[in-house]
Amino acid sequence: MIRYTQYLMPTTKETPSDAEVVSHRLMLRGGFIRKVASGIYTYMPAGLRVLRKVERILREEMDRAGAQEVLMPAVIPAELWQESGRWDLYGKELLRFKDRADREFCLGPTHEEVVTDIVRREVRSYRQLPINLYQIQDKFRDEIRPRFGLMRGREFFMKDGYSFDMDEEGAKESYQKMYDAYCRIFRRMGLDFRAVEADTGNIGGSSSHEFMVIADSGEDSIVSCVSCAYGANVEKAECPSVAEKTVGSKDAGPFRKVETPGRRTIEEVSGFLGIRPDELIKTLLFETSVGDVAVLVSGAFEINEVKVRGFLGAEWVRLAEEPKVRELTGTPSGFAGPVGLSVRMIADLSVRSIVSGATGANEKDAHLVDVVPGRDFEPETYADLRMVREGDPCPRCGAELRVSRGIEVGHVFRLGRKYSEKLRAVALDADGKEIVVVMGCYGIGVGRTAAAAIEQHNDADGMIWPISIAPFEVTIIPVNVKNADVAAAAEKLAADLDARGVEVFFDDREERPGIKFKDADLVGIPVRVTLGEKNVADGFGELRDRKTGETVRVELSRLAEEVMKMVARKKAECGA
RNA sequence: CGGGACGUGGCGCAGUUUGGUAGCGCAUCUGCUUUGGGAGCAGAGGGCCGCUGGUUCAAAUCCAGUCGUCCCGACCA
Question: What's the pTM value of the predicted model, to 2 decimals?
Answer without folding.
Answer: 0.91
